[in-house]
Amino acid sequence: MTVLGHGILELILIIIMAFGLKDLFSSPTVAGFIGLFGDVFLAWMGYGMIKSGINKSVSLENQRAGNSAGKRNLILVGALVSGTNPYFILWWASTGMESIHQSYALGLIGVLFFFIGHILLDFVWYTAISTAFSRGKKLISDTAYRWIILLLGIFIIAFSIGWKMLQM
């Protein structure tokens, strides 16, 4: 569901770029705003991870299947995490935009084929990552997992602060 949210955001970006609004996303002001929002979002995510690790509210135990509202939230999270990631924006403002430009040489069908190939690769990659993660549950304890989540939360906060400092 998260990758679906990522894919929906990418589809919207591709449509926008194919129809000429690419200059908006390459604007330093817009990119800066998205980057700042992304840093705040990353710090908030890191805080939540640290809090979950400390409160022991995160576990590797199998969770109940979510309801449809939970699945819709995962789609929204996928779009938000992607859209606020500075690297996502940088990739689309450079490599992605050039890929759209090249695929547009074949017309809208070229852009459609680019999107289909790109999103299928995203699904294959993230399926491999989630499969590896779910199988890895047998390798570590809940305590170790909580420590990993806590440390990754600290890393994400440091990354959100450090990335902005590197840009100054």
From TrEMBL:
GO terms for biological process: amino acid transport. The chain crosses the membrane at residues 7-25, 31-50, 74-93, 105-126, 147-166. Keywords: Cell membrane, Membrane, Transmembrane, Transmembrane helix. One of its GO terms (cellular component) is plasma membrane. It comes from the Bacteria. Its main location: membrane. InterPro entries: LeuE-type. It is a multi-pass membrane protein. It is found in: Cell membrane. This is Threonine efflux protein.
